[in-house]
Amino acid sequence: MTLDRIGFAYNPTKEAALDLRERAEGWCEVRGIAHWAAAAGDTAALVRELPESGALVVLGGDGTFLRAARAVSEVDVPLLGVNLGKVGFLSKVETNDMETVLGQLVAGQFTLEARMALHAEVHPGGRPDASETYFALNDIAVARGSLARVCRIEVDIGPSHLATFTADGLVVASPTGSTGYSFSAGGPIVDPTSRNLIVTSIAGYLSAIRSVVVSPRHTVRVRVVDAYDVLMSADGREDRRLSIGDVVAVSEMPRPIRFIEPDGAVPFWDLLRQKSELLPS
To answer: What positions carry a catalytic annotation?
Structure first.
């Protein structure tokens, strides 16, 4: 597989991302490769350009990558991240290697890796006939807002009741998102190519259950039992205020998101070790 048109999604608020975009566009122009660029948060512009593109290269950190992923959830185009963040678990390429990897893309020297994503529905008052839908590559969180008051959250997995948590909230993560908010809350790191939902309470009070790993054939239903101020967040970027009785149902998105794996890329578990060494102890 070779690519004849490449899109670049970038963070317009970072000078380094703007410089990297110019480098990428210059590389394409010299070689006569069709290309385009748009801000990662401009979903409409990305969706408009993606159908005629072979790949979307994201220039920025994990936040930029997650914003761009929303567009490819609508138009099935593979993603590759060039890391400008501090850790960048979602990115396979560092800035110094960008031109080399672009050459690999054009030459077809890569494979595609399927990553499970999440589909969430909010049912106001628990009504099954009323719903709002959300997409997340990393996680769906139901958590307290700005006020330091815990929530009571009832969690069902498929036909079974798991627990009613008194906690700051709950995270339902994909395997790709297991290195993010879920891990910070005490959840396990899961192989990103697996298909599971990771359900983890946030600062749970007197709970014997901290985190469970769930088959993708199940839907995780989260109902707000009692809360003063509680929000649902998709990938940390879309906040939706919830009320008592509201239900958030999280399941596997029917179609995976495709990641580009350049030939010779560092395997995930080696990348995890390397990135972890960069974190403060």
So the answer is: 62
